[in-house]
Specification:
The protein has 136 residues and is mostly helical. It has helices spanning 5-15, 17-20, 46-58, 61-66, 73-91, 111-123; strands at residues 24-31, 36-42.
Length: 136
């Protein structure tokens, strides 16, 4: 899969995620013409975990249940999408680049699932021509 300029920017920002979120390890990743696939491994640093526990104790139960966790997937994805959107729209202002509002996530529970999903991501470009959005 040959990356467009936008695809290259997105790929570059993806690989910078661990610089901004040191508890994150990245797995397989691919930029497709109209979507991306990637594995994010969220580990929690001991200091961050202790701080989170102390912060949670200060919050009401209601806010505890709805507040996004600073180390969680939603915060990482929101930050990633935000930096991509900002830079892409600065470089290509007439494009009006925007992500879809939501994303799909799945918790990988074992090594077999991890391997299956990694293989799916790696081989995704092979099935691009069968995608309903493929344009020859």
């Amino acid at each position: 899969m040959k990356l467009s300029s936008i695809g290259a920017l997105i790929q570059g920002f993806w690989y910078q995620i661990p610089k901004h979120f040191p508890h994150v390890t990245l797995g397989e990743f691919i930029v497709m013409p109209n979507h991306i696939h990637g594995i994010i491994d969220i580990g929690v640093l001991k200091e961050s975990k202790e701080k989170a526990v102390n912060d949670v104790k200060k919050q009401t139960k209601f806010y505890q249940s709805i507040a996004p966790k600073a180390s969680g997937v939603p915060v990482v994805i929101r930050s990633f999408k935000s930096v991509c959107t900002k830079h892409i729209n600065e470089i290509f202002p007439s494009l009006g680049f925007a992500w879809q509002e939501r994303y799909w996530e799945h918790i990988i529970k074992d090594v077999d699932s991890f391997q299956k999903i990694s293989n799916y991501i790696y081989s995704n470009p092979d099935s691009w021509e069968d995608d309903k959005f493929f344009l020859p």
